[in-house]
Amino acid sequence: MSTYQTQRDVPLKETQGATTLTRKELLKTWALNYSSETCYNYERLQALGQTSAMVPVIRKLYPNDKAKQVQELKKYLNFFNTEPSFCGHVITGVSVAMEEQRANGAQLPPEAITSLRSGLMGPVAGIGDTLQAIVYSILAAIACNLAIQGNIAGPILFEVVYKFIMIFCSLNMFFLGYRKGRTVILDILKKGLMDKLTDAFGLIGLMVVGGMAASRVNIITPASINLNGVTVIFQDILNTLLPSLIPLVITLGILKMVNKKMKPNTVIAIIFIVGIITSYLGVLAVPVAK
């Protein structure tokens, strides 16, 4: 086991004479981490933005040594790419904790920080991208539903709630990484906490999308038959037994076409053709608003 692997993961806050980062530097670094994709380029991707985020920390740890500041910041210019908005901040938090230990005498070579960042950016990106996509989809579904009804609260709700969740997650992940150090990621992955959270959000997302299919695919059947002078309307029977059965069948049919890798234009053409034919035959129709 190498020397730096035996060091504790908690920042050195109890050592006398130690240079301790304040909440001011930590919050600056967290906020600047949102500029990860500033000067985004195909050679190093988020490296320049990450380097910018670490400037307040490095300046505080090495206040009177410009050459040392430059030297320490250079290791963040290596290729880096992860999810930057929800969970990616945990890597920055761990890096900050290790920089603080390193500045206060811990035997942490620069390669230790670089290797840890490179090793974590893939797993964290997988977790963060999944969480971001689920949150985005759920909020967008709710907001679009409100907007279609002419409610101006739809887009406002989306922006406010999405940003709140994003800031809440990133801030907690950053300080979790800073306080717990590099073991926090391993603990999260080993316990499967993110998998459970992802499954929970996925279940909620499916419920929201299912509700949208029932409310937004607004198709009924006007078909009816006459039995001994009594008109039987099929839609009334469906409303009693299986409400929204037709929207469900249509949604599942389109899903099956998408799963078969059919081109979007082909799917749209089929919808148009089937819609025109069934409407002409009196099989399907759009309900008239009362």
Q: What this model shows, in words?
A:
The chain is built from 11 helices and 2 strands; from the N terminus they run ααααααααββααα. Residues 1-17 have low confidence and may be disordered. Strands 1-2 form a two-stranded antiparallel sheet. The chain has helices spanning 23-32, 47-61, 66-74, 89-103, 110-148, 153-180, 183-191, 193-216, 234-241, 245-259, 264-281, and strands at 224-227, 230-233. It is mostly helical and 290 residues long.
Topology:
Blueprint (H helix, E strand, L loop, with lengths): L22 H10 L14 H15 L4 H9 L14 H15 L6 H39 L4 H28 L2 H9 L1 H24 L7 E4 L2 E4 H8 L3 H15 L4 H18 L9
Antiparallel strand pairs: 1-2
Helix pairs in contact: 1-2, 2-3, 2-4, 4-5, 4-6, 5-6, 5-8, 8-10
- The arrangement of helices and strands along the chain is HHHHHHHHEEHHH
Question: How many beta-strand runs?
Answer: 2
Oligomer: single chain
Could you report the average pLDDT, rounded to the nearest whole number? 81
**Straight-line N-to-C gap:** 75 Å
Gross morphology is: elongated
Provide the gyration radius in Å: 27 Å
Spatial strand arrangement across the major sheet:
1-2
Largest sheet, described in full? 2 strands, antiparallel
Q: What is the helical fraction, as a range of percent?
A: 55-70%
Q: If helices are DSSP runs of H or I spanning 4 or more residues, what is the number of helices?
A: 11
Structural class: mainly alpha
The unreliable regions are 1-17
Strand content: under 5%
